[in-house]
Amino acid sequence: MESSPPSDPEVTGWLQTLGVASLCQWDVLIFLYRHQTTLLGTAELARLLGYASDSIVVALDVLESLALVTRSRVSQGARLYQFGLPLDSPRGAAFTQLQALVTDRAGRVRVAQQLRLDRTHGETLQAAKRFLAEAQQRLQVVRRYAQQREERKKTWRKAI
Amino acid sequence: MAEGDLIQTGIAGLDDILRAGIPKGNVILVEGAAGTGKTLLGMEFIYHGITQYDEPGMIVSFEVAPQKLIRDAANFGWDLEALQQQNRLKLLFTSPQVLSQELNSPDSLLMETADAMGAQRIFIDGISLLRTVPNTLSNGGNGNGSDLGHYRQLLQQLLAGLQREELTAILSHEVTAIEQQAFALEITEYLTDTVIVLHREPHRRGSRRSLEITKSRGQDYDTGRHTLRITAGTGLEVFRRVQIPPRDLARRQPTSTTRQSVIGSSPLDALFGGGVFDGSVTMVVGISGSGKTVLGTQLLLEGVANQKRGLMVSLDEHPEQVMRNAETLGLNLREHLDSGMIQFFYDCPRELELDVHFAHITRTIEAHNIERLIVDGMTSYTSSLEDTQPYREFFHALVTYSKDRLMTTFLSYENPELFGVNQFMPEFPVSSIRHYRG
Q1: Chain A: which residues have CB within 8 Å of chain B?
Q2: Is B92's CB within 8 Å of A40's CB?
Q3: Nearest CA of chain A to the CA of B107: how many Å?
Q4: What is the average per-residue pLDDT within A63-71?
Q5: What is the separation of C-alpha B275 from the centre of its chain, rounded to a whole number of angstroms?
Q6: Which residues, 6 or more positions from A126, have their beta carbon under 8 angstroms from its beta carbon?
Q7: B3-239: CATH class
Q8: In terms of CATH architecture, what is B259-436?
Q9: Quick one: which of B298, B30, B34 has its CA closest to B172?
Q10: Of A26, B47, B252, B408, which residue is 20 to 30 A from B74 by alpha carbon distance?
Q11: Cα B297 to Cα B326: distance, rounded to the nearest angstrom
């Protein structure tokens, strides 16, 4: 006998157990699950998934912080990404239910309806942190460059 | 070449036509059009490597989601998921661009992963996609000749990397009518060590698969197109083409002077000059209803009486029908079929594949140590095959095989025009022709 489709509260519950809040996070997660071990750069992931590169970067940050995905070091702009959730855990069980649900179009639509299309607060925070970190890195580079330039100037002045 | 220097594919029939395997370190190219079985061959090579030869492996895919590979493999009873969990298999999805970058990288993540799991085999599905990697040193790839130079360079880097890492690799390459792709394929054929070509061609209203080894450095192999089958639950199976000459050409065909009674009837034996020789092949010719099948049945029963196991091959009648007809004449075939002294092999003539048919016959003969063989009858082969050449090749091979094993063989042939012209009248060395009148 065919089992009845899960209710909306059940779907919401699974997503909450998993910690996934945006459609981009879900799409990245299910992609990495289906592709087992993925060796790609974020730009290629973005191209394959149809999202902007920065959205993918933020989604990966969140998924990694939730221990749903593992990432290797960077090699030539690419990383090894792996689905990292043990399926025999309560979160794994929630993922299995959701994964079974999205094997058809109707299920995919139901999951998508439960998720935000725009960035979640967590993602916005992650993006802001990342932006801040990158800005600080760039600032350091600029400061270092300015300092070197100043030192070169001093050397020239002495020589003149 | 010593067996230790060879690597077995584990694919049924393939190692046999490769004379026990492929020299270690050879890079193998598998080429073919869509649907010929390239991915399956690569996947099976990796799967058997792990499960039969304890050689961990990696499957690198650019286009097919590994989850689909897992699903497809499950149809053949191969649990790729479990092998991944045991860290003996890694399914890796990447892009041609990243792969080419990785090949240039001294601290490649790909090779690091291969090292970590002790991979010895690798399958890269769709190597032709390396052609799409833009040439950053020239014009970014505009489809001209320099792109092919760039592709050749990438491929050389890949092969060097595989050699450095001591990985035995299978690369799959699609065959299309696109000119640039054809050039790329030609380059790949030059650079790789072993080339396996897969074909899928229309046959009447159906289609047939075949496999051909066109090159393999450092070894001899069986040439020509061999039948390839994909069987649900099993995987690929290669059937050696029947007309291949024996490998040991210096070996002499055995001959016997021992005579056996045909059916235990002295007058008939007298017609043969005192019975049939072991290793003789007799063609029984007659019109329909003249008793060819009955003679064959009696020949088998006479063999059983002398502890000789028999096999009846038929494209016409099912075993039940032959047994029923025999019973009406008081011949108890069923008892001996049940005891295993007589085997019956029926094959449907409608889509007969000769290499497969021949393999089934020889396997039955070898498995049951058959000494008497009846083929009832040759006429059905003529109507099934439409072409004289494969018909002749098949019967040449069957007669040679039967003589090699010193079997007593009877071939029945329904021909109302025995001495008239018949386009399928075979030309091969049978020991005698007996003509039966109804």
Answers
A1: 33-41, 44, 72-73, 75-80
A2: no
A3: 7
A4: 94
A5: 37
A6: A58, A61, A62, A65
A7: alpha beta
A8: 3-Layer(aba) Sandwich (3.40)
A9: B30
A10: A26
A11: 7
8 Å CB contact of B93 and A37? yes
pLDDT score for B130: 84
Confidence at residue B424, expressed as pLDDT on a 0 to 100 scale: 47
User: Is B95 at the interface with chain A, CB within 8 A?
Assistant: yes
Question: Looking at CA atoms only, how far is residue B60 from chain A in angstroms?
Answer: 10
Dihedral sign from CA coordinates of B122, B128, B129, B134: positive
Where are chain B's structural domains? 3-239, 259-436
Residue of B nearest to A76 (CA): B101
User: What are the per-10-residue average pLDDT scores of chain B (438 residues)?
Assistant: 81 94 92 94 97 96 91 95 95 90 81 91 91 66 60 86 86 84 83 94 89 93 94 94 74 84 84 87 86 90 93 90 90 92 91 92 96 90 82 90 92 71 51 56
pLDDT score, position A87: 87
DSSP string, B339-393: HTSEEEEE--STT--HHHHHHHHHHHHHHHT--EEEEE-HHHHHHHH--HHHHHH
Can you give the residue ranges of every domain in chain A? Answer: 8-123
Contacts of B66 in chain A (CB under 8 A): 34-37
Residue A40 pairs in a beta bridge with: A79
Structure tokens at B183: 């050039």
Contact B93 A41 (CB under 8 A): no
Q: Do B390 and B225 touch, CB atoms closer than 8 A?
A: no
Residue of B57, B28, B48, B13 lying closest to B218 (CA atoms): B28
Listed by number, the residues of chain B in 172-201 with a beta carbon closer than 8 Å to a beta carbon of chain A are none
Q: What is the pLDDT of residues A79-138, one digit of tens each?
A: 999 999 988 899 999 999 999 999 889 999 999 888 876 666 777 777 788 788 888 888
Using the CB atoms, write b or e for B177-213: b if 16+ within 10 Å: eeebeebbbebbeeebbbbbbbbbeeeeeeebbbbbb
**Cα gap B96→B253, rounded to integer Å:** 54
| pLDDT number for residue B367 | 97
Q: Which residues of B touch A33 (CB under 8 A)?
A: 67
Which CATH code is given to the segment(s) A8-123? 1.10.10.10
Nearest CA in chain B to A87: B85
In this complex, the residue of B84, B92, B101 whose CB is nearest that of residue A76 is B101
Supply angle C-alpha A32, A33, A35, rounded to 5: 60
> For residue A144, what are its two tokens?
């270092």
Residue of A nearest to B96 (CA): A40
Largest CA distance in chain A: 93
One fold for B3-239 and B259-436: yes
Cβ partners under 8 Å of residue B433, min gap 6: B282, B283, B285
